[in-house]
Write a structure and sequence with these properties.
Blueprint: H1 2-12, E1 22-23, E2 28-31, H2 36-39, H3 44-47, E3 53-61, E4 64-72, H4 76-86, E5 99-102, E6 106-111, E7 114-120, H5 127-140, E8 164-166, E9 179-184, E10 187-193, H6 197-210, E11 215-216, E12 222-228, E13 232-239, E14 242-249, H7 255-265
């Protein structure tokens, strides 16, 4: 099944996306940590999201050259997380695939379990052409354009307009292995989903041991608040199999009230 999927992506990567474009050189394929051979130090940013493989080609028309790379991840959540980690937070997200952005020299988008990059090598504004190419590839890739439900859990007003997936050590805490974080003027909200309520309860026990000065709050039956040298004022709660809360809450803001608002939005 994996081989079939890889062949399917390779087959749709052709340069016949507009008049005059031709493939230059052989197609590229990198799997797992072999991606290091292609992008050196930047490969870690892909591997942390569970990178599986990358298929790529170079398209040329006259002196113009465009690099097209399609990276596969384990699921749509990881691929969209990769997109969000690469997007410009000051620029809006366009409806290309699950979401995309187009800049003068590079277009990126995610769709299903794929993250796609279309980049012009030459200086100048190639926005229109890159957008057209990205839209063609987005239409060719089959699969869902749905985002994870977690994006609906956070209150509006986020910096950059959206939460983002943190693939490991949420808030820099090893016990919070993978989850979503949203930045606000009033602090940083986060939600981590564990395998079960029992697993989540065990993580809360570890967190209470880490934050020894914590005191209980009324957010949920299992919640606490504490001041930390690195995370500032922080309020953490458990609701079923999910752990959430706020960190870096500034003076004048009620961390418990913020956490209660977040907890009420969780299913």
């Amino acid at each position: 099944m994996i081989v079939v999927a890889a062949l399917a992506i390779a087959s749709l990567l052709d340069c016949g996306i507009g008049a005059g474009w031709r493939q230059r050189g052989p197609a590229r394929l990198y799997e797992g940590d072999k991606l290091f051979e292609y992008m050196d130090g930047n490969s870690e940013g892909y591997l942390v999201y569970g990178f599986v493989r990358m298929n790529g080609i170079t398209c040329a028309k006259g002196d113009a050259t465009v690099i097209v790379d399609v990276s596969e991840f384990p699921d749509g959540e990881s691929a969209y997380g990769m997109f969000l980690s690469n997007r410009d937070s000051g620029q809006s997200i366009e409806p290309i695939g699950t979401g995309g952005q187009v800049a003068p020299r590079k277009a990126i988008f995610a769709k299903d379990r794929y993250f796609v990059e279309v980049a012009a090598e030459q200086e100048g504004d190639h926005t229109a052409e890159l957008r057209a190419m990205a839209e063609v590839y987005a239409a060719r890739i089959e699969g869902s354009v749905a985002r994870a439900d977690a994006f609906n859990w956070f209150p509006p007003g986020m910096d950059g307009g959206t939460a983002r997936l943190v693939p490991e050590s949420v808030l820099g805490i090893g016990a919070l292995k993978r989850g979503y974080v949203a930045q606000y003027g009033a602090g940083k909200a986060f939600v981590v989903t564990e395998a079960s309520p029992a697993h989540a309860s065990a993580v809360m026990t570890k967190l209470r041991a880490r934050f020894a000065a914590a005191h209980d709050t009324a957010v949920t039956q299992d919640s606490f608040e504490v001041s930390d040298p690195y995370l500032g004022r922080i309020c953490i709660f458990r609701k079923g199999s999910r752990i959430g809360g706020y960190a870096n809450v500034p003076e004048g803001q009620d961390a418990v009230s913020l956490a209660q608002t977040l907890a009420a939005r969780l299913p």
